[in-house]
């Protein structure tokens, strides 16, 4: 059975497989490669995934969820209608759909996958991703960092070093990579798990509200979802032409805002500034300079924005590479990683070395403030994996009979500011403080599984712990129960995908339109529902083409910016300026 690669993204997800000596993208039921990472639930209780679910973001926002990847590994609950889901469960629905698509494409069962995660995902996020895969019916033995996957996709036969900037819908990852012969070595990683294209959409929507004296907290969920969707469209349109006009009717009032790339720079300046810190940190950690990096590689859907490309070129002084579709780069690399794991003969000799993205260590007594333990690193961030490191720790009290060790992940000096992964203790002989000691060994494997071993040096007594968050790790029985629980939520049958998408699109356009167009949409859908009731597949197929063409025309009209005033502005607009002076912002986020 083949192992597939999956890029489980914040905005879109896609699957790939190594076939006939190359990595192939796997199409979904609509014949597209990108499946929006959106989940919705309809009035029949069926789970809708992808394009159909995305169409319901405006018309049924309370029954639709997106952006949940940002909460992977956190104790977050997401309401969809009357049902409550975790980010793990919602991600499992996306993975289930990708699994179905892969099995149809390959004509055989698929039981194993390599799944990519942001390099800066902590252990909780990685474990959550594995569990989502298991709930979808996959065996997930290998998790790969997204920039590492991008490095695999870009690897050539010659030696080179490159800086990978992976900027998606919800996360920013930065890696420094050295490639030589058939070895790809990740040297350093950094990132921001809460910075992505979605933040730019929200910034545009907030600017629109500000320009029209609208308080966002007074708007309905439907209106907010509509504004964010329009903001995303404006962002995409600005990639091709400018200016664009964002127009929306709110509470019976026609509201608008004019957007140019220069204005976008001003609106999103704090977000752009936040990109600089992870880049600088990755270069500092590997003790490299930009002059020592051969190429800059940009991947992820948000890198399609000219603003982002120009900004990266502006701050780094080097033009980034765009040899591969940025939306698909990580998926291609993940497919290659799956082929390596599968020991495919034409790629098995390729070796990818990854690194530990966070420092791992234990608590030690803070003599100045005994209630606030200090963090003692054992494995530093950017250490090549797999690795094993040991440090010796001594007793701090007279007649101490136990050593209690808490394991943390992070970069802060104080334990309370880092992520606690687990705890372990061992009995020791009573003696004056500083006379007894224990050796603590951390062993961290390629999949981010941490084994902690503690040995009392004087007695030889030993104990060990495999670090898995108890809230995230599932026993076989728990996994079985969770699978049984999710079984009641049936995915929309793959064959119904196109019909359901038309109905979802009609609902969105109906809400966005008025007058005659609204009546026409109503008539089209009435007739389409009649055909569905009759079950004549040939007629449904023909009418589906007609109605899709009609909906495309309405979408074009709704998104048209070519009124006379705007055209006059555009004719006089000088787009030759380069935005050299990016504004500072006093409220810049860290």
Automatic annotation (TrEMBL):
Transmembrane segments: none
Molecular function via GO: ATP binding; ATP-dependent protein folding chaperone
Keywords from the named record: ATP-binding, Chaperone, Nucleotide-binding, Phosphoprotein, Stress response
Pfam families: HSP70
Ranges in a coiled coil: none
Origin superkingdom: Bacteria
Residues spanning the signal sequence: none
Record keyword Ribonucleoprotein present: no
Family, per entry: Belongs to the heat shock protein 70 family.
The protein's role, per its UniProt record: Acts as a chaperone.
Name of the protein in its database record: Chaperone protein DnaK
Annotated organism of origin: Candidatus Butyricicoccus avistercoris
Taxonomic lineage of the native organism: Bacteria, Bacillati, Bacillota, Clostridia, Eubacteriales
